UniProtKB/TrEMBL annotation:
Assigned keywords, A-Z: Acyltransferase, Transferase
Gene Ontology molecular function: 3-oxoacyl-[acyl-carrier-protein] synthase activity; beta-ketoacyl-acyl-carrier-protein synthase III activity
Descriptive protein name: 3-oxoacyl-[acyl-carrier-protein] synthase 3
GO-annotated biological processes: fatty acid biosynthetic process; secondary metabolite biosynthetic process
Domain of life: Bacteria
E.C. numbers: 2.3.1.180
A Pfam family of this chain: ACP_syn_III
Organism: Parabacteroides distasonis
Keyword field contains Transferase: yes
Length: 314
């Protein structure tokens, strides 16, 4: 599979840490020390994952080497849907009259983007599609509880769009070398660690410590697995992009793998935890800076539990 173009959308508003002092008594220093977050992005009231996905597509279109109507598969990946019937995939299909595309929605918490890539891979393998559009977006502010002292200060909003083809279209296309995902619902605290029940408290993370431990275990493990399987070592890795949940997780992984800070790409300090789009967003924001022969790992861990990683070669 090959990445033909990427785009992204980040709302303009930033909510700083001081906002939470009056809400739940957390100081800016406390939040920064434990999460690395200084501000987080927040969508407008009238924005949602459908509208943000449209904006991400608009950002990608000038770089797309074919007409968008050639897309024959659209996958929306998110855990914070605006409409569970007319999804972001259908919204983009309608906006651009992409008449011959399949359109669907999937959710696997913060692993949703990587699972979407794997679904695309499956459609390509079956010969049922050849050009796909993956829409990754979350509007956490639609569901979070800002007064929750455990997780109310973490969340941001954003969207990304990835156009992907079965065969190489242009010389600049990056190759998705391999995608790996795994469900981890069998782990002891998986069912209660993180949950989003729209009518029962919104997004909550009562088992944050367990999430931290599991993320620090599976995110590096998956990258090492893919590197070894594809004949690479850590020395071959140009950039490491992890799910933007907590900078302490990234620091822990950096220590485990003995990787220098300059190999880690991140945006959590400005945008907060943007959910399932976070790693895709980091990639799209840095896409123009990647060079030929760069090897990039994306690795994630999400509620449910779920995990996954992929390797991208430029």
């Amino acid at each position: 599979m090959f990445i033909n173009a990427t785009g992204f959308y980040v709302p303009e508003e930033r909510v700083d840490n001081q906002h939470f002092l009056e809400l739940n008594g957390l100081t800016s220093e406390w939040i920064e020390q434990r999460t690395g977050i200084h501000t987080r992005s927040k969508a407008k009231e009238e924005e949602n994952i459908n509208t943000m996905s449209l904006e991400a597509v608009k950002d990608a279109l000038p770089k797309l080497p074919y007409d968008i109507t050639e897309v024959d598969l659209i996958v929306s990946a998110s855990y914070s849907p605006y409409d569970t019937v007319a999804t972001a995939a259908h919204t983009v299909q309608h906006e651009y009259t992409i008449a011959d595309a399949k359109a669907l929605y999937l959710s696997s918490a913060c692993s949703s983007f990587l699972n979407a890539l794997e679904v695309v891979e499956g459609y390509f393998a079956m010969g049922k599609a050849s050009k796909a559009l993956v829409l990754s977006a979350d509007k956490n502010s639609a569901y979070y509880n800002e007064t929750d002292p455990k997780a109310g200060h973490l969340w941001g909003d954003a969207a990304a769009a990835f156009f992907i083809s079965k065969e190489r279209i242009g010389e600049g296309d990056a190759e998705i070398v391999e995608v790996y995902t795994q469900g981890l619902g069998h782990l002891s605290k998986a069912m209660e660690a993180v949950h989003l029940r729209p009518r029962d408290g919104g997004i909550l993370m009562p088992e944050g410590r367990d999430v931290f431990i599991q993320a620090c275990t599976y995110m590096p493990k998956n990258v090492l697995h893919l590197l070894e399987k594809n004949g690479y070592t850590l020395d071959n890795l140009t950039y490491f992009i992890g799910h933007q949940a907590n900078m302490r997780i990234m620091a822990n992984i950096a220590k485990q793998l003995n990787l220098p800070d300059e190999k880690f790409l991140h945006n959590i300090e400005e945008l907060g935890n943007t959910g399932s789009v976070s790693s895709a967003l980091v990639y799209a924001q840095n896409d123009k800076n990647f060079k030929k022969d760069d090897l990039i790992a994306i690795t994630v861990f999400g509620g449910g539990y779920s995990t996954g990683a992929c390797l991208i070669k430029h």
